[in-house]
Each structure stands twice: as structure tokens, then as C-alpha cells.
Amino acid sequence: QGSAAEHGAPPAPERVLFPPTFSVSEIKNKQRRHFMFLRWKQQQRKEKLAAKKKRRKEREALGDKAPPKPIPKTIENQRIYDETTVDPNDEEVAFDEATDEFAPYFNRQTVPKILITTSDRPRGRTVRFCEQLSTVIPNSHVYYRRGLALKKIIPQCIARDFTDLIVINEDRKIPNGLVLSHLPEGPTAHFRMSSVRLRKEIKRTGKEPTGHIPEVILNNFTTRLGHSVGRMLAALFPHDPQFIGRQVATFHNQRDYIFFRFHRYIFKSEKKVGIQELGPRFTLKLRSLQKGTFDSKFGEYEWIHKRREMDTSRRKFHL
């Protein structure tokens, strides 16, 4: 028997590009090492895609007899159980909701009126962020501080029937903190702010938001602390949304990071819905929850994030 070349057949392509004991780090030449690493990653992707297609064909062949798909392990579904997780049917939780500081809002006895202010001498990026935030939150007013302490601002807000005070802090011309104080009796939440994107910095944004009251979506606020924070954020928006505006403000909690997005949706058909982001977007991380209004010296704190004590496990979350 002759070889394939003697019979005129083309030689078979090499199926294994790298030996089992191959290590890219052993290559001394930097450019060659980078090139071989890219080839190795490409081979890994091809093998992974081929295995995925093979599993899909096997499931199609088995039909209804196919075994259920395995659930991938993630940090979220491996979360350590928290004793303060809220049961929606708990009578104690229902009583607390009926008597807490936000009960008049949820009973439609008060209408939110928000004051948005900044730290002293805000820069252009913080100013634009406050202006865009005021277009998201209905019945909100932007005033800039000029050396006035927060303790003096709060009585003036209460006298003018403001229900909430939002303070945007900045560092090196970048917004990096948010203080939310519910008036007149608190509580006050301190957040670390990151990943701020204005409307011009978001790709494929829609037109400017309209004056309609948006819908509010709160996701994954499951513990007692998360429940309080979620009610605090919901109380910023009027309770009766105007669905004709098709605008949605979303606070999504994932691993104790609160992601804010502002969208407009449109019904393309009976089954398909398209959404476009309006902006701005930002991410919040709760640092502390304080009883009463803002008081940095003598305030009583309900919860303070202590990183070295609380962040001992990546699967432990507080909201």
C-alpha cells in the first residue's frame, strides 16, 4: 500500500496544532510567543464551539428524552443565605411597611418633591449630570451650593415641602458619591457612585426623555436592608406612572451594586418589544444607612459597610 501522496490525494490537515505538554510561556521571542498564544486561543474556541454543536445535536436526537440542561454555577446562585431575607407574606414586614417613613408616599398621601444639589463649586461634568438627572426624576429642582452646610439646607428644604434631598459629590471633576436624605425624618443613605455615563457618552441613545412620569423597576432587593433601600429609591418617583410615555427607570441590584438605567420601550409586535436607552447611567454602592436626616457627627447609623469585616466571602451579600 502506497502513501496518500503516491495516489495523488492531498495530505490530511494537522488536527492537533499543539502537543499536550506545550506551554506558550516557554517561547523566548516575545512576538512569536504572542502569535502562538493567539493561535492557541483560536484553537480553544474552535474546540469549544465544536463540543457545543455536538451536544446540541445529541439533544435534538434524543428529543423529549434529553436530560435537563445543567445549571451553571455563578456567584449569585451560590449566595450564602441571609437571615434577614424578606418574605413578601410576612406580617411583621407588612406592619413595618405600613408604619415606616415611606408609608405616606405608598399610601399616596404625599407627592415627591426632590431637591438636587452638589458639593461646593461643582465642575462641568457634575453640573451636566445633575441637569440630566433632573429630567429623569419628575418634580425635581436643581440648586447649586455656595458654601452652605447641609445642616442648614435641610431645614430650608423642609420649610419648602421637599420630600427628598439628593447631594452629588465629586472628586477630581468626576461624580463619585451620592447622599440621599428622606425628609423630614430620614433615613439618610450614603452611596459610592461609579461608572457615570452622560447621554452623549452612551451609544445609540434615543431622543430626549419626555415629561411623562416613568415606571420604576426594582430588582433583587431581597433583605430587610435591601427592602429599605429599594423603598427609599422608589419614593423619589411619583406613585402613578404615565404609561403613555413608555419610559422606565430601573434599579437593578447585583452583588450589592445598584445599576441604574433609564429606557424607553416600543411594541414592535404582539411578542417583540424594542428598547432604547435614554441615559444617564450610573452605579451605586451603599456605604451606610443613617437614621434621621444628615448628621455626620452625632447621627445614629442603622448599617455601615465595613469592608474588612463584611467582605470575607465573595458569596455574601447584604442587599
TrEMBL record:
Basic and acidic residues bias locations: 58-67
Keyword terms: Ribosome biogenesis, rRNA processing
Localization in the cell: Nucleus, Nucleolus
Main location per the UniProt record: nucleus
Keyword rRNA processing attributed: yes
Listed SUPFAM superfamilies: Class II aaRS ABD-related
GO BP: any one term: maturation of 5.8S rRNA
Residue ranges constituting the Brix domain according to the UniProt record: 112-295
GO cellular component: nucleolus; preribosome, large subunit precursor
One Gene Ontology MF term: rRNA primary transcript binding
Region (Disordered): 42-78
Keyword check for rRNA processing: yes
PANTHER family attached to this UniProt entry: RIBOSOME PRODUCTION FACTOR 1, U3 SMALL NUCLEOLAR RIBONUCLEOPROTEIN PROTEIN IMP4
Its biological purpose: May be required for ribosome biogenesis.
The protein, known as: Ribosome production factor 1
Organism: Zapornia atra
